[in-house]
Write a structure and sequence with these properties.
Elements: H1 9-12, E1 21-25, H2 29-41, E2 45-49, H3 54-58, H4 71-84, H5 90-93, H6 99-110, H7 112-117
Parallel strand pairs: 1-2
Length: about 120
């Protein structure tokens, strides 16, 4: 069996039951899909709610990991944009309470590749 102590994430969210599947997740559609699959299959697992304060993390930084734009930004900001735009939930989640997130989301949406990418496939 793999020693979970070898993985840095277990320092922040330690396993109480290391013999079970460790589910590190947010309550997003993808996180919920995995939890539903585990429930449907009956596989034993231990859920860990992953939390981080993106607003605090972005203070003094250009992007989520620092000054360089990374895959982390490409993963995070489409969700935030969809939360506000498609779902219209900005007010519900209090997006105005997160000025750093709003600042970096604006920079993300201004990137030429993002401008092109959000219109693929073409909307009719």
């Amino acid at each position: 069996m793999i020693d979970l102590a070898d993985f840095p994430i277990t320092k922040k969210w330690p396993a109480e039951y290391p013999e079970r599947i460790q589910l590190y997740s947010l309550p997003t559609p993808n996180g919920i899909k995995v939890a539903v699959m585990l429930e449907e299959t009956g596989l034993p697992y231990e859920p860990h709610l992953v939390r981080f304060d993106a607003n605090r993390r972005l203070a003094g930084r250009s992007w989520i990991m620092g000054e360089a734009y990374t895959i982390a930004d490409m993963a995070l900001f489409p969700w935030i944009n969809t939360l506000q735009g498609f779902y219209g939930a900005g007010e519900l989640v209090g997006i105005t309470d997160f000025p750093q997130v709003i600042r970096v989301l604006k920079a993300f949406l201004e990137r030429p590749a993002v401008v092109r990418g959000v219109d693929i496939p073409k909307r009719i």
